[in-house]
Amino acid sequence: MTPLLVVAGSALTLGAGTPLLLRRLRGLERWPTLAAWLWLGSSVGALTAVALAGLLLLLPTDPLGPGVAELLRTCVMTLRTALSTPDASSTATLTGLLLVAIIIGGLLLGGSVAGLRARRAAGRHQDLLALAGTPAVGLPGVTVLEHQRPFAYCLPGQPGPVVLSSAALCRLDAGQLAAVLAHERAHQAGHHHRLVLFAQLLRVGFPWLPAAHLAHQAVARLVELAADDTAARAQGHRQVAAALAALGDAPIPEAALGAAVVSATERVRRLLTPPQHGDPLAPLVGLLGLGLPLAAQVLAVALPLARVAGVPICPLG
Amino acid sequence: MRLRGLGELERAIMEVVWAADGPVTGRAVVDELTGDRPLAYTTVLTVMDRLVGKGLLRRQRRGRAHTYQAAQSRAAYTAELMAGVLDSSDDRPAVLLHFVEQIPPDQAEALRAALDTARTRPTPGRRGRA
User: Fold this and answer.
1) Which of A15, A147, A152, B117 has a C-alpha 20 to 30 A away from that of A87?
2) Residues of A in contact with B4 (CB under 8 A)
């Protein structure tokens, strides 16, 4: 029974505990890309734990019917003892099936809903952009949209399109414009769209998993910080901060303030504040918070299996 | 710079169709376009078929020829585009990464002050880069 318990514990920890830890580790924001991967890793680890638990419960009782393989049966008995799985009552089998189905179903659902939607939206958006936008003079790869609201965004690709509204172009001086473009190119070069898409896939496919919900918000936020840092290294912190203020602080009457994934104010402050030296341990703590429960689930299954592999009657190796 | 999605010719064709008063034939589009440059009739028709496939043009049979019409007005496309750009809902497709969202007015003042302070002293030495 022990491996099953360990795996269940790992699922709980990664699914709910590690996210709480990651959320408290503000020091991690100095390493936004690492932080984003830790978030995704925690969701994925919780899901592998659930899948492993399902597989443990599913170890076949009576493979291939009587007489076909007495050897196999003995093998499975050995495995079962090694992994101390409960004697497969129909409840255990059903639970195992259910767990595995939840994981596979979630991946299919998330992939098809989030993935296909993003794909279709990207294609359609590019078509419309080509019709409504005009190429920016002197800025290769940049498209301008006529709009009184200042905005800038990018589509995935290497190099994908970067889009600026006419109002944004008016408000930015040369240095700020370079900062905005550096930020957008950092998104594209860092494959940030994929990170956000993956987080969205997990959230759509596994709405019951707290880690997936929190990871989606966190990743959307962290890729902005990562792009800010890259842009700041190339163009200077003050330029990026000034560009954020220039575009974010626009007197727009309709001002439908969206739920910003990360407030511009917070990003400006972060860029203008020298790094705190308070928390150099944050990445270590984050890595341990993810690594320990992950290692636990792997070892819980791998150690008994390794032992079985040595048994001559059951040649697993 | 040409965008991957729609070529220059596709865009030019849409311009002609939008400018036209009602459905147009492929021939009319070719005639309109060859004012600028010589174009093969079949090339233009192929591209127009592609636009039909993308749902940007609608095709009807009129006697022996086909006529074409824009599926939506230019304004409608721009509106659709902007709706996608300004969509801030939590489950917008993971396609657009914005530079910045709007700053609430009550924070803007504090921000400008912070920027002014930063301007008067050297850039913070984060990662040792000016």
Assistant:
1) A15
2) 126, 157
Q: What is the CATH number of the domain that holds B19?
A: 1.10.10.10
CB atoms within 10 A of CB A214: 21
Domain extent, residue B34, equals 8-70
Across the interface, whether the CB atoms of A237 and B82 are under 8 A apart is answered no
Looking at the domain assignment, is residue A159 inside a domain?
A: yes
Contact call for residues A218 and A231 (beta carbons, < 8 A): no
Whole domain around residue A96: which residue ranges? 2-309
Mind telling me how many Å the CA of A43 is from chain B's nearest CA?
18
Give the minimum alpha-carbon distance from A121 to chain B in angstroms, rounded to a whole number. 7
As for how many domains chain A has, the answer is 1
Q: CA torsion angle for B106, B108, B109, B114 (degrees, to 10)? A: 130
In a domain, A49, yes or no: yes
Q: What pLDDT score does B58 carry?
A: 92
Residue with tokens 């496309």: B77
The verdict on a CB contact (< 8 Å) between B56 and A236 is no
pLDDT digits (tens, 9 = 90+) for B88-120: 666 677 777 877 776 777 777 777 777 877 776
The Cα A49–Cα A6 span in angstroms is 9
